[in-house]
Amino acid sequence: MEVPRVVRACLPLRQNFKLSSRPVCPYQKNHGPQPTSTRITRPLNRTFHTTLPHKIDGLGGLSLDLDRSLNVARPTGRPAPRAASSETMLEALEIPQPHHLHVYAHKHNTHITLTNPNRDPVISVSAGNLGFQKAQRGTYDAAYQLGAYVMSRIQQGGHLKDIQRLELVMRGFGPGREALTKIIIGTEGMMLRDRVVRVTDATRLKFGGQRGKKPRRLG
């Protein structure tokens, strides 16, 4: 069979083309031989990939298949490890959980509570337990004496050996907040100052809700 001139000219340029003669009419058996046409067909696109599994540290155990032809990283389908919480990390490092010293200071009174790592109260006192009554409970002097009393009870009650790490939780903006801060910085809190690992503000903030109470104005 003679190859057309156009095809003959293209053959030296593309050697991967192949010639195929296929009947144009599908009813060749019933209608006899039909004229055939010469078509140029492209060979099958066969790509052979070689994968090299590698395990890369620092990516959460992600296994990557490095495709030589595409160079694409593909996950193997294994779930990524969950991020460890702070408590789990402390347990893994064998670091003890901190005790908590809660200070609730409002304009009428000051409450101080020392709790275990599991939030069980150890010491819980307020300015009224020291003999202050009515308006005297909301003064700076009452809050300062209360803080000094709590520090002495921690030392005399033998709780100091159990407290290795301490978290200070502040709530409210009464005079007791500044009073206890001065105690921790001063000589009364010298035994606990180096064990404080965190200071938290737990003051409750109001947003939305019902209309607030009208402020009291004297004079």
Please tell me about this protein's structure:
The protein is an alpha/beta fold. The protein contains six helices and nine strands. It has helices spanning 5-10, 28-31, 86-92, 140-156, 175-185, 190-193; strands spanning 18-23, 36-41, 51-55, 63-67, 99-105, 110-115, 121-126, 166-171, 196-201. The strands form three sheets. Strands 7-6-5-8-9 form a five-stranded mixed beta sheet, with helices on one face. It is flat, with a radius of gyration of 41 Å. The termini are far apart. The model is unreliable at 6-21 and 46-73 (pLDDT under 50).
List the SSEs and their pairings.
Blueprint: H1 5-10, E1 18-23, H2 28-31, E2 36-41, E3 51-55, E4 63-67, H3 86-92, E5 99-105, E6 110-115, E7 121-126, H4 140-156, E8 166-171, H5 175-185, H6 190-193, E9 196-201
Parallel strand pairs: 5-8, 8-9
Antiparallel strand pairs: 1-2, 3-4, 5-6, 6-7
Helix pairs in contact: 4-5
Distance between the termini: 119 Å
Query: Total number of β-strand segments?
Result: 9
Helix content: 10-25%
H and E order? HEHEEEHEEEHEHHE
Helical run tally: 6
Shape: flat
Note the beta-strand portion. Answer: 15-25%
Low-confidence spans? 6-21, 46-73
What is shown here, in short?
This protein has helices spanning 5-10, 28-31, 86-92, 140-156, 175-185, 190-193, and strands spanning 18-23, 36-41, 51-55, 63-67, 99-105, 110-115, 121-126, 166-171, 196-201.
Looking at this protein, list some descriptive labels:
single chain, 219 residues, alpha/beta, 5-stranded mixed β-sheet
